[in-house]
Amino acid sequence: MATQYNDALDYHSRPTTGKIEIVSSKPCETQRDLSFAYTPGVAVPCLRIAADPEEAYRYTTKSNLVAVITNGTAVLGLGNIGALAGKPVMEGKAVLFKRFADVNAIDLEVSTEDPEEFIRTVRLLEASFGGINLEDIRAPDCFEIERRLSDDCSIPVFHDDQHGTAIISGAALINALDLCGKQIEGIRIVFLGAGAAAIATARFYRLLGARQENIVVCDRAGVIHADRGDDLHPAKREFALKTDIRTPEEACADADVVVGLSAPGAITASMLERMANRPIVFALANPDPEITYDEARATRPDAIIATGRSDFPNQVNNVLGFPFIFRGALDVRARSINEAMKVAAAQALARLAREDVPDSVISAYGVPSLRFGPDYLIPKPFDPRALLWIAPAIASAAMESGVARIQLDLDRYREELEARMGKGREMMRVVMNKARRAPRRVLLVNGEHEKMIRAAHQLRDEGLALPILLADPAAVAAKAREIQINCEGITVVDPAEPDLRRRCAERLLERRWRKGITRTEADELLAIPSYMGAAMLDLGEADTLVTGLRSNYADALRPMLQIIRALPDCSIAAGVFLIATRRDVLFFADASVNIDPEPDTLANIAIRTATLAQDFDVEPRIAMISFSDFGSVRHPRSEKVRQAVDLVRTRRPDLTIDGEMSASTALSEPALSNRYPNNQLRHRANVLIFPSLEAGTVASHIVQRLGDATLIGPILVGMRKAVHVLMRGAEVQDIVNLAAIGVVQALQREEGGRSAVNR
Ligand SMILES: CC(C)(COP(=O)(O)OP(=O)(O)OC[C@H]1O[C@@H](n2cnc3c(N)ncnc32)[C@H](O)[C@@H]1OP(=O)(O)O)[C@@H](O)C(=O)NCCC(=O)NCCS
Predict the structure, then answer these.
(1) Buried b or exposed e, range 81-118, using 16+ CB within 10 angstroms
(2) Nearest residue (CA) to ligand 1, atom 46
(3) Does 594 contact ligand 1 (Cβ within 6 A)?
(4) Domains of the chain: which residue ranges?
(5) Which CATH number is 574-718's, of 3.40.630.30, 3.30.990.10, 3.40.50.10750, 3.30.70.2740?
(6) What is the pLDDT of residues 202-256, one digit of tens each?
(7) How confident is the model over 100-144, as pLDDT tens digits?
(8) Ligand 1 pocket test, candidate residues 538, 547, 558, 563, most atoms within 8 A of CB
């Protein structure tokens, strides 16, 4: 505990104090920049905005800026600790806005407990922001504050403590009811707690279809009923039932759902025992729930349980909502976040939970699998798809309900959201769009593997390819059943099928008889899945192939080199990593095939990689990498690289290339423009050709691990047909990416167009 305490303080104080900083989005290096950033140039947008306030969305950060505003009266479970003490929470919220949805957020701590003063202050600040996230304001003040500000402001005002929990738990409720086979209209719900989150959640469940007369809300004094003599606040009065029930225990008799938004201990085992069959228990107090997960599970093994904790299934975490809700609202310049938008968010989350979960999410949580069911009702907070599902749902609902200032094309909007998530996704989107237009047959070797089945499912679902699993159909069916994947539309080809085997053996023999193999040896080789796959591809049984999931890279690659073979022009295949950082796209080669290339091979690797970059619409600037810069160290190894540069210049004078140079020079604008002004690149390189396989793989993997980059590949270039070999540990998304790239390469070959595989 002491470590955690100190770690928390360290986190907040080092290397700089606090958690957020402001970064300028425009250059300010020259006198010219200065004159635009500030006076006199800045006057131009000022006047545009003065003439038309809507222009503020165009010329200022208003379009992507949210204020996280508190008065510190109900901070987390810490109570009224004051505005300033709440600042770390507000900064934290700003961090989450940025991390999950690229929303810029700034914290504002308003030091007043007077709701009128607070409302006035926030209202006066409205112009600066595209949205206002109210945070940690005590009930019942928060209801009035939010209502008045929402009425008065023409930007969204959203009190996350109320609606965040309501929306996320609402998504969990939709799915839990579905699993229990119950209809929301008929269920009985008990709320423990009548604070901001509880009241908002009760209202939201009503909006989802729950009947008012079936909702019992309890506060510290017991059931809120119509005859209660105490001075009930209007928000509580709204849920005052005409009933004889007085205690939470009584309320729980035959209840279908209990929602705890109160304090540890508020739900007891005896309450759960009284509930109806398959009860739904949401114990959402944090960090200690109303009843521990273990006790709830032991008491009611048939229950569906959610808590606010990350160490148990079904964490109801607001981060699944607010960043994406504001993203969608900001992008349509919404005037408010209305009920339709909130329902749309909950429904989108509920739907997303039913989708197959990507490996990246599964491995981020260190669990063997995540599959829709009682223990996986809602997506995990680090699921990158949440942005792509919720923000468009919000934008769409805002447009339909008339609160959007602008209309968006939702397909284009999804693409823009992907671009926000980094260049890698943007690049892959281009590839995927091409593949989707004319999906081709992709042969997935080791088709019985769970990852291949899931990749096939995704390829089919997204219309990217016509997947063929090469595997024993019974093994595929058993695995698909186990992982609950519907294999409809996925072809399974049995490698033991005699006619296919005979044709493949003949093809192997045809290709390899001059390498001395016999018919018997050809038959034996077919027992190795990659040989079988290569022969099938060569026979035209598929258009592209992905293999390597169950073998080491070299063993899966060799059959491709032997049967499919490299293109005849220079007989060199190479492996390229497309490396995407947030802003940059780089191509690294060779990163998977040629161990110690000679100058001639190195030159061909450079040419093939440059062609691949062009296929991705990137104009290549090739740096041939070594340890020295332009002859600074004379050594046979740097000389080899230099010779390769000369060969490329002779073979492809149209390409921009230089070297040898160090990686540091290749990626430094000042070094290229000032220190070595005569080089041909002039700008940072985007194609880096490494002198050996060690250098290529080491560089790629270090960038991936330390540089927060996405690696796509290795993309095999130079082969007669589009084949791809996976690295060990490849994930479903890697298979999907390489299959989609294979489809596009196959298409380019069909069209006779220029492609790395054709060169
Ligand atoms: C590619 C590799 C497997 C070839 O090794 P090998 O089988 O021992 O070498 P061989 O010379 O017998 O080559 C086998 C076949 O591949 C062909 N080949 C080898 N390198 C090739 C290349 N770069 N391009 C095209 N074809 C190539 C050969 O011509 C030969 O074909 P043939 O039998 O029809 O004549 C080997 O270079 C290797 O292991 N590379 C590193 C793979 C790796 O581990 N990558 C890191 C993981 S990402």
Answers:
(1) eebeebbbbbbbbbebbeebbbbbbbbbbbeebebeeb
(2) 592
(3) yes
(4) 50-155, 163-312, 320-421, 432-564, 574-718
(5) 3.40.50.10750
(6) 999 999 999 999 999 999 999 999 988 767 888 999 999 999 999 999 999 999 9
(7) 999 999 999 999 999 999 999 999 999 999 999 999 999 999 999
(8) 558
